[in-house]
Amino acid sequence: FGIASAENFVITTTNRKEITEDNFSELVQDGVTLYLLQSVDQMLPLATKERIDFLPHYDTLVKSGMYEYYASEGQNPLPFALAELIDNSLSATSRNTGIRSIQIKLLFDESQGKPAVAVIDNGSGMTSKQLNNWAVYRLSKFTRQGDFESDHSGYVRPLPVPRSLNSDISYFGVGGKQAVFFVGQSARMISKPATSQDVHELVLSKEDF
Prior knowledge:
- This is SMHD1 protein.
- The protein is α+β, with helices and mostly antiparallel strands.
- It has 2 domains: 1-54, no CATH class; 58-146 and 165-205, 2-Layer Sandwich (Heat Shock Protein 90), CATH 3.30.565.
- 24% of the residues lie in helices and 15% in strands.
- It has 8 helices and 6 strands; from the N terminus they run βαβααααββαααββ.
- A two-stranded antiparallel sheet has the order 1-2. A two-stranded antiparallel ribbon has the order 3-4.
- Strand 3 and strand 4 (116-121) form a beta hairpin.
- The longest helix has 9 residues, at 175-183.
């Protein structure tokens, strides 16, 4: 790597956990992405990419939303799809100590790209592994563990209140992806964890599939 013999460096996971002799076997596994840095909190000079492998056929993602929402027995399915899209924001902002902000924007300026629905919040953010898990079909937010925990880690089932307030919408870990491919052809998630300076981006696209 061209490192001088007197130069200090660290190897970390994408969650900025330093690889040591004690945790090597736990953190270093096949396919894991690692950073070679001068320090754990070093700014990344360039964007990095990480590949996510899917077991299901891509039709499971891009067509399941159509089947799910067209089975709504005469109801207008769009509000249900939008409700799924704000589920991550409900969870991410549930522990905010200050203002809890969730915005839904409809973008139609074709000079900025294709029309889109944007859901924006000021929540805790997701790490790269949590974004990875969001992309995996049928990985429930109640069963993701360890370094592969979801954005719902530490979740405690709330007292009975309207479901629109308690982040219980997407219980089985499929609703967000079904909603995305019911409304459009791709999903782009941008997130900065509250505990890190790194910004993570995930793109799921029917065209790429």
